[in-house]
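Q: Please design a sequence for this.
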């Protein structure tokens, strides 16, 4: 009975809710720990992100929009929760890209993109975790958007690629 329920085809909304729940479950330890790192202390003491000087103007724009200020305000956990929602959308698109009608088991196949210890370490930064969490979203959006026959999809792919270059550091 339980296996039959796992093999039932899910709609886009149901697969999104499943992957959103799995993503939120993954970040619960980060929300409960609320630990700041040395980089986070530096950014909060100076109230400056200096992301534009590091080649990431998209992160500066994100924090200006979320914080209603030109300074780098510590908004934790809001950016992490927004990034988790974006990750769930990206994983849902990936599941529907791989499978025509994904089941719950099919949705679990894409979770290793999110569930790895190296990615969890990147998400644990209160300021840069948002940028690191958004990188797979932008990369996945670019690959899902590209279809050779559609000019709109090519334009969307170019915009997603440009968006990712504004948030990813030169060393990443």
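A: Design:
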């Amino acid at each position: 009975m339980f296996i039959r329920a796992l093999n039932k085809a899910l709609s886009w909304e149901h697969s999104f809710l499943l992957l959103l729940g799995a993503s939120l479950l993954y970040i619960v330890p980060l929300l409960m720990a609320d630990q700041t790192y040395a980089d986070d202390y530096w950014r909060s003491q100076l109230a400056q992100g200096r992301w534009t000087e590091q080649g990431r103007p998209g992160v500066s724009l994100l924090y200006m929009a979320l914080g209603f200020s030109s300074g780098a305000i510590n908004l934790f956990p809001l950016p992490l929760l927004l990034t988790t929602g974006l990750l769930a959308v990206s994983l849902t698109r990936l599941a529907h890209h791989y499978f025509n009608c994904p089941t719950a088991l099919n949705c679990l196949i894409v979770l290793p993109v999110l569930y790895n210890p190296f990615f969890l370490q990147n998400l644990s930064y209160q300021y840069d975790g948002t940028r690191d969490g958004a990188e797979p979203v932008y990369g996945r959006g670019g690959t899902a958007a590209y279809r050779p026959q559609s000019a709109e999809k090519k334009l969307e792919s170019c915009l997603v690629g440009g968006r990712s270059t504004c948030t990813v550091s030169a060393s990443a």
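Q: Thanks. Anything notable?
A: The chain has nine helices and no strands. The chain has a mean pLDDT of 79.
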